[in-house]
Amino acid sequence: MSMTLNPYLSFRDTARPAMEFYRSVFGGDLAIDTFAAYDMGQDPAENDLVMHAQLDTPRGFTLMASDTPGSLPYAPPAGFAVSLSGDDDRELEGYWRALSDGGAITMPLETPPWGGRFGMLTDRFGVDWMVSIAPQG
To answer: What is the CATH number of the domain that holds 104?
Structure first.
């Protein structure tokens, strides 16, 4: 029996551009279902919003997202971050640069006391990310 644990992000009207952005960062296959596709739209103006999106990347990452309809309360998520970690310095630094484009760096990608490299940012869609590159050697 296999299991996975992956982030599921919520947006207000920006899930499609967010997921297209993440596909540009990580590559992979992006599937998007709208509320209209399953006759789930309660407001016709929201029919083309994302009911469910899933990005499966060549690295084995899975990222999911949806839009929150206007009839439901929405507050940007707080108190968590999506974390990327590993030992491929060049690849992780590339993700860092791409995710920070149009976003805000909250902690530069630098050498922390425990070694390696670590940084934090908020991307252009308001999602917090942490990137941790393991010490070499």
So the answer is: 3.30.720.110
Assess if residue 75 is contained within a domain: no
Cα separation, 119 vs 112, whole angstroms: 9
The tokens 């029996």 sit on which residue?
A: 1
Q: How many CB atoms lie within 10 A of CB 86?
A: 13
Domain count, the chain: 2
3-state SS assignment for residue 1: coil
Beta-bridge partners for 52: 33
| The pTM of the whole model exceeds 0.90 | yes
Bridging pattern class, strands 128-133 and 62-67: unpaired
Rounded to an integer, the average pLDDT of 98-106 is: 98
Number of alpha helices (DSSP H) and beta strands (DSSP E) in the chain: 2, 8
User: Backbone phi, then psi, for 72, in 5-degree steps?
Assistant: -110, 145
More confident residue, 136 or 96: 96
Q: Which is nearest to 24 in space by CA: 74, 123, 98, 103?
A: 98
The two tokens of residue 87 are 């030992």
Cα-trace Rg, the chain: 16
Instruction: Say how far apart CA 38 and CA 9 lie, in whole Å.
Output: 20
